[in-house]
Amino acid sequence: MGSQKPSRSRLFRSTAFKLTLLYMGVFAIFATAALGYVAWNARRLIEDQIRQTIDAEITGLSEQFRQGGVRRLLVVIEQRSRGPGASLYLVTSPFGERLAGNVEQVPVGLLDRAGESEMPFARSAEDASGARPAMAIVRVYVLPGGFRVLVGRDASERDRLRIVVRRAGGWALAVVLLLGVLGGFVIARRILKRVDTMSETTVGIMTSDLKERLPVSENGDELDRLAINLNTMLDRITVLMGGLRQVSDNIAHDLKTPLTRLRNRADEALRPNATTDDMRRALEGVTDDADNLIRVFNALLMIARLEAGQARETMANFDASAAANSVAELYEALAEEAGATLTSDITPGVTMRGSRELVGQALSNLLDNALKYGKPSDDAPAHVSLILRQEAGDVVFTVADCGAGIPPDQRGRALERFGRLDSSRTKPGFGLGLSLAKAVAGIHDGTLELKDNRPGLAAVLTLPVDGAGGGFGDVPAS
Amino acid sequence: MRLLIVEDDAEAAAYLIKAFREAGHVADHAGDGLEGYAMAEGGGYDVLVVDRMLPRLDGLSLIRSLREQKDATPALILSALAQVDDRVKGLRAGGDDYLPKPYAFSELLARVEVLARRRGAPASEPTSYRVGDLDLDRLAHRVTRGGTEILLQPREFRLLEYLMKHAGQVVTRTMLLENVWDYHFDPQTNVIDVHISRLRGKLDKGQGVPLLQTVRGAGYSLRAEPR
Question: Fewest 10 Å CB contacts: which of A22, A251, B152, B170?
């Protein structure tokens, strides 16, 4: 595993090599077909020419026969037979006797029927003894009176063409094969080397806590794009893992305190001299603590389920203004008792698609936070406002206070689970309210932003009027 | 009141039966959905308490089948899946109330008693309620105690209306949040308590007999005589 030098068998098994072979095979088939087509056409052309020549000769000989009869024909044929590069001639009597011509032997039966055919021929003795006799295209012509005239022409030109084409094709194929195998070998080696480097680095990354990154060359080719994407994915995994670690650390830390308190209360009830009243009080405390813990777990589960995109099927159109008013009314009494003021400025009649329940819960969490942390100082009363506006395609809920606010660099952390900012953690609460509100925003395809209210914090929940766009089939595309 | 508890967890079922008996009710137990369906079909129960996840026939199908048989026995669904869409699914199947696990028994008892009472109640709501010397006129939106008018905000009126409708019964904080504000989430602080103490200030101020009483560990109850 992981040797620097790619082994031969791996090289041949590589995709690049197989692809090269495949391309080469396809190319060879096409090239052979093209060559074959050209050869076939050339062969036809040659045969046509031969036939035309034969036709012309026969026309000429027929003319001689008509003018001078058999005698004249025989004289002309004897003359022509002797010329260099001459055609093949043979004239026979009605009884099959050879009368004139330069052809010694004719296959049996050839002269019996008129028309075109092919026959082997030998002009001299040594030609006849050759392994492959030359072929000729011949035509037999019957004259009035039963005389037969055979005219033919050497077709070895055609056969030579076939041999030339076949030889050229063979060589070309061999060269293509050789080049293909070599090219495939080189390309596969090059790519395999880079892929090997990448997979070795991947092994390194897996063993080294995801710190390393894949090398990226300057080519900008597909392997580089792959490496860049993998690196981005690794970055994202690192961030997510960090977040997860943070959350589990926080859970462990934040749940230890109430669990310890719960334990202490149980201990109290178990004291030897505890009265019934003490026990009852302690048990009531235990129940309260347990309820709080359950509440925390419910909130965590709910955030997880919202982030997983569940609960979308309960979305419907609802009156956002009425929902916001309802929450405001719910918290007005609480604000008043705490000596704070809660004013609401809600545009009436705004409807949206979504979960009224979840939006109400998110607003409730934001108001709860604002009332808890929104005091300008410890003695001064908090002033909190809930504002609802419709802006373009969005419903914008703003919960603003006039407290200390959150510095810009800590706002991201405030939205995390258990992201409580007072490190002493003296105030009640578990720091899940904002992250739940953020999850609610997320499932509506909206956003939750923390802004500066100068002074104080403004939590802005922006939700699209038509709900989570991609999530439903029944929402008309806007 | 006769209850049928359909719950496959034997320990949880035993606890519920004991607790309901102590509260003065009769409770039967079915260990799976089919058995529960057969027992419920036999009739005679005031309220069904049905776990959502059951062997052989799940809780939602059980209730849906009963409703198809025109059986309107009030049913409360208990569910370990305590989130958002489960309530909607449960109520769509024909359930009348929904309680996520884990729950306090006092919460379950209060809800079951309200469901049982609803069954006997007339279909149309009365136009006025009276508890002791407290009168609420739903049509005139007027509240008087001993003849003196008490001025209430609209939401306070709805709160009192709900309490008077269930006078003598225990209503929990979540029941109030559900019925008066129409929200089902768990408010993080004692928001309901503040509303109650405000209302109590208006109702019982300067009066000898407090009507709006706190039931420790459970909720509130509006009644003429002390418990």
Answer: A22
- A382 vs B contacts (CB less than 8 Å): none
Structure tokens at A398: 């703003």
The pLDDT, as a whole number, for residue A73 is 86
- Look at A360 and B100 and tell me if their CB atoms are within 8 Å: no
Sheet containing B2-6: order of strands: B26-30, B2-6, B47-51, B75-79, B97-100
CA dihedral of A317, A320, A325, A330, whole degrees rounded to 10: 70
In terms of Cβ atoms closer than 10 Å to its own Cβ (0-12, 13-18, 19+), residue A106 is buried
Tokens found for residue A263: 């334990």
CB of B195 less than 8 A from some CB of A: yes
Q: Which residues of chain B have pLDDT under 70?
A: 81-84, 120-123, 187-189, 226-227
| Residue-level pLDDT at A474 | 38
DSSP secondary structure string for all residues of A92-152: E-TTS-EEEES-----TTGGGS-EEEEEEE-SSHHHHTSSS-EEEEEEEEEPTTS-EEEEE
Q: Which amino acid is at A462?
A: T
Q: How far apart are CA A396 and CA A465, in angstroms?
A: 10
Residue B49: strand pairing partners: B5, B76
Q: Which residues pair with A316 in a beta bridge?
A: A354
Query: How many A/B residue pairs have CB atoms within 8 Å?
Result: 75
Q: Are B196 and A330 in contact (CB under 8 A)?
A: no
Task: Say how far apart CA B28 and CA B31 lie, in whole Å.
Answer: 10
Q: What is the DSSP letter of B214?
A: E
List, in sequence order, every residue forming a beta bridge with A345; answer none if it has no partner. A387
Contact (CB<8Å) B84/A355: yes
Alpha helices in A308-319 (DSSP H): none
Asked whether the predicted pLDDT for residue A158 surpasses 80, the reply is: yes
pTM (predicted TM-score): 0.63
User: What is the rounded average pLDDT of the residues A310-331?
Assistant: 84
